[in-house]
Amino acid sequence: MTIVVVFGFGGSDRTLGCRVVRIDDAVLLLFRKDVMKESVTYQAILEEGREEGKQQEALSLILRLMGRRIGTLDPLLHDRIRELSIAKLEALSEALLDFSTAADLVAWFDRESE
């Protein structure tokens, strides 16, 4: 077990004190949850996670709808859908309502790449 000596001011007289704690406890003292939540880095990581989650959900829904609408997708089309941004996934989610075959999806990709 690794131990760390933590120094700090404490009490009402603001005297310097120390205590010995385990390394994981020291990390918790240094990076308190409430302090971390306010950090710019934490907020950026959180936002990145939200965006990734949003993209995964959109992708999952579109693939399910596409399967019901036009059947099993060719792996190449499946991969092209996976590469789309959130904005393109949203556009595809509306367009797929008019699809009846995989050719419609290919035509959509052709229009979007122009």
Describe the structure concisely for a colleague.
By secondary structure, the chain is α+β, with helices and mostly antiparallel strands.
- Report the C-alpha radius of gyration, rounded: 26 Å
Largest sheet entry: 2 strands, antiparallel
Total count of helical runs of at least 4 residues? 6
Spatial gap, N to C terminus? 61 Å
Secondary-structure-derived class: alpha+beta
| Helix coverage percent | 55-70%
Low-confidence stretches: none
Number of beta strands:
2
**Beta-strand share of residues:** 5-15%
Query: Averaged pLDDT, please?
Result: 80
Order of the strands making up the biggest sheet? 1-2
Oligomeric state of the chains in view: single chain
Element order, helices and strands?
Answer: EEHHHHHH
The global form is: elongated
Walk me through what this model shows.
The chain is of the alpha+beta class. 65% of the residues lie in helices and 14% in strands. It has a two-stranded antiparallel sheet with strand order 1-2. It is elongated. The termini are far apart.
What is this structure's SSE topology?
Elements: E1 3-10, E2 15-22, H1 23-30, H2 33-37, H3 40-70, H4 75-82, H5 86-95, H6 102-113
Antiparallel strand pairs: 1-2
Helix pairs in contact: 3-5
